[in-house]
Design goal:
The structure holds two protein chains of two kinds.
Chain A (H helix, E strand, L loop, with lengths): L1 E12 L2 E13 L4 E5 L6 H8 L7 E6 L2 E2 L5 H11 E4 L11 H11 L4 H14 L15 H14 L4 E5 L7 H16 L3 E6 L2 H4 L4 E6 L2 E5 L2
Parallel strand pairs in A: 3-8, 3-9, 6-7, 7-8
Antiparallel strand pairs in A: 1-2, 1-4, 4-5, 9-10
Chain B lengths: L1 H13 L2 H38 L4 E6 L9 H7 L5 E6 L1 E8 L4 E9 L1 H7 L3 E4 L4 H5 L4 E4 L1 H8 L8 E4 L2 E9 L5 H5 L5 E5 H7 L9 E6 L5 H15 L7 E5 H44 L1 H9 L4 H38 L7 H28 L2 H6 L3
Parallel strand pairs in B: 4-9, 6-8
Antiparallel strand pairs in B: 1-10, 1-11, 2-10, 3-4, 3-7, 5-8, 6-9, 7-8
Helix pairs in contact in B: 1-12, 2-10, 2-12, 2-13, 10-12, 10-13, 12-13
The chains are: A alpha/beta, B alpha+beta.
């Protein structure tokens, strides 16, 4: 379902050119729980951006569900992200002036789901992350763990084919981090594909398959 | 989608009310200035044109600038009255004089005319009588005065038979006029007016000759106004050696035209100034929207990441600018309405909200919102999601 073939991406930082990804190859099948681990600056954020269709590779090919991503325009990529990818970020990335319910609703609005159906999907998603009681709270009124669960609910609501989590436990203490990880396990158990990006070995080990990235090269790690 | 964008815009606006209000202030002031100023000018125009047309549309006024050595006399006017379509003709000459009654002495205007003048102008007496042709023929020292003159110089209006002094010369008061609300009184500088026989006035004032330089003509039938005017012009052309520059015929509609072109220019000018302030208000919107876009870079990144395309982000910010400018516009119109009501109450006048200007200000605000929202909205829409997400504000 995710196929990267010889993907390269270069960045210019000042005058120096940084090769963030160097002919990376990666295959992830549907229903897999994969962690991508690497130290900071290893290129894992770049990989996440490309896999998440937030950025397009300079070279190589990326297929998501059989779609050749580099062939699409920015607006089409926005639609693909909306339908196929559920993002979970380290810093939660909720919109501050919207309530939990409205944050979860947002991607559904962009999908033009009718209001009634939308409300049902939102409630379902929030109950699934055990936040049914706090739907009308704004992010500032929620704890870090709760905010991350809202973010997960936002990802769940659109029923994406891929959950893409970037250091989802990075801003949380270890016990809330564990709760969040349990949510990912549940999602995986229900047959969802999860790609988890982290620098934390203990988190990475929880995945069924681990991929290490170092200086833009992708290597498989045996667990 | 548009409804959703409006809701989102409303959220964004209400989450920072003070800023939203300050942004709107430019539009509020612009719309307020535009609507109030133009409504006032329009109201004034309506009242002036109303009083001009209340003078009667069967009225022609003639000014003679060059008599070709053959001056116009009272007997010429009498002949004129026999012409087709012309009902009456009355000369008018005027001077400023000291007028004194039993109580006060004031400077006022003295008009020399005939009885026809009162009928042509629709002036009526509330007491006594108007001038008669016998008064004119016999150079009688009698006077018809306005109500203001009577009340201010004598302290009452019941003064028929008393004497009024004009530059020291005694005139017997034979009539007191009704209060005149027409344009001639509205536009004249002095309230103190005295009408005396034409012949008496020219006899005692140096520098006034018996030559008529200005007279009024009434037309028998209003519908035949154009024919009567053409006839009059023909007669005067014959009289003054076919020189059409020797005299000038004016009808009330041409006076009204001049008036409305003056006020039209005035409202255009004031409207233009107000429109500039609206424009400045629009620049204010752009300014704040640009700040807002930068501030909300991360939000834009999040929205893009979870699936908002360029068009959606563009629409969101554009509608936000739209909503701000429309709210400003509506508040401005409400304030204008309230102000006009207050002016009406205090000044005892009747100015109403000029609907075309309200429509124009709404259109203009929409345009301002669109034009000045476009650049910030485009800036937001153009952001790359990864850059926007990485932004630390």
């Amino acid at each position: 379902m995710i196929i990267l073939e010889n993907v390269s991406k270069k960045y210019k930082i000042g005058d120096t050119e940084v090769r963030a990804l160097d002919h990376a190859n990666l295959h992830i099948k549907k229903g897999e729980f994969v962690s991508i681990i690497g130290p900071s600056g290893s290129g894992k954020s770049t990989l996440m951006n490309i896999v998440g269709c937030l950025d397009v590779a300079d070279e190589g090919k990326y297929y998501l569900d059989g779609l050749a991503i580099e062939e699409y325009t920015e607006s089409q990529l926005a639609k693909i992200r909306n339908k196929k990818i559920g993002f979970i970020f380290q810093s939660f990335n909720l919109i501050g002036n919207l309530t939990a319910r409205e944050n979860v609703e947002l991607p559904l609005i962009y999908q033009r789901v009718p209001a009634k159906e939308r409300a049902e999907l939102v409630e379902l998603a929030l109950e699934r992350v055990k936040l049914g009681e706090r739907m009308n709270h704004k992010p500032t009124e929620l704890s870090g763990g709760q905010q991350q669960r809202v973010a997960i609910a936002r990802a769940i609501a659109t029923r994406p084919s891929l959950f893409l989590a970037d250091e989802p436990t990075g801003n949380l203490d270890s016990s809330t981090g564990t709760e969040i990880m349990e949510l990912f396990h549940e999602l995986h158990a229900q047959g969802n594909t999860i790609v988890l990006i982290t620098h934390d070995e203990s988190v990475a080990k929880q995945a069924k398959r681990s991929i290490r990235i170092r200086d833009g090269h992708v290597e498989e790690v045996a667990i | 989608m548009i409804w959703q964008s409006v809701k989102m815009a409303w959220k964004a606006i209400t989450s920072n009310k003070m800023r939203a209000f300050l942004t709107m202030l430019g539009i509020i002031i612009g719309v307020y200035a535009l609507v109030v100023l133009v409504s006032l000018v329009n109201g004034a125009t309506t009242s002036v044109t109303d009083s001009i047309s209340s003078l009667g549309t069967n009225l022609l006024s003639v000014t003679i600038s060059d008599d070709k050595g053959n001056p116009y006399r009272l007997k010429d006017l009498e002949e004129l009255m026999n012409e087709d379509g012309i009902e009456e003709a009355a000369p008018l000459t005027q001077t400023t004089a000291t007028i004194s009654g039993s109580l006060e002495e004031e400077s006022g205007r003295v008009y020399g005319t005939t009885g026809a003048y009162f009928r042509i102008q629709g002036k009526e007496v509330q007491l006594g009588r108007i001038l008669k042709s016998i008064d004119v023929d016999n150079h009688l020292n009698i006077a018809v005065i306005t109500e203001d003159t009577a009340t201010d110089l004598f302290g009452q209006i019941n003064i028929v038979g008393e004497n009024i002094k004009i530059n020291g010369m005694s005139y017997e008061i034979v009539g007191v006029l009704e209060e005149d609300e027409s344009a001639t009184s509205a536009l004249s500088s002095s309230n103190y007016e005295v009408y005396v026989p034409y012949t008496s006035l020219i006899r005692f004032v140096d520098g006034l000759s018996s030559n008529i330089t200005s007279f009024y003509v009434s037309v028998t039938n209003e519908d035949d106004m154009d024919a009567a005017e053409a006839n009059l012009e023909q007669i005067l052309l014959e009289r003054f050696n076919q020189d059409e520059d020797a005299f000038d015929i004016m009808n009330q509609s041409s006076i009204a035209e001049v008036m409305s072109s003056v006020t039209g220019t005035l409202s255009l000018l004031l409207g233009g100034i107000a429109a500039i302030s609206l424009l400045v208000g629009g620049i204010g919107i752009m300014n704040i929207m640009l700040v807002s876009v930068t501030e909300r870079t991360r939000e834009i990144g999040i929205r893009k990441a979870i699936g908002a395309g360029r068009a959606v982000i563009m629409l969101q910010f554009l509608i936000e600018a739209f909503v701000v400018s429309m709210m400003g516009c509506i508040i401005g119109i409400c304030l204008s309405w309230i102000t006009l009501q207050i002016i009406n109450k205090v000044g005892g006048v009747d100015y109403s909200l000029s609907l075309p200007v309200v429509a124009i200000s709404i259109l203009f605000s929409l345009l301002v919102g669109l034009v000045f929202g476009l650049y910030p909205a485009n800036k937001a829409a153009k952001m790359k999601p990864i850059d926007a997400l990485r932004y630390i504000g």
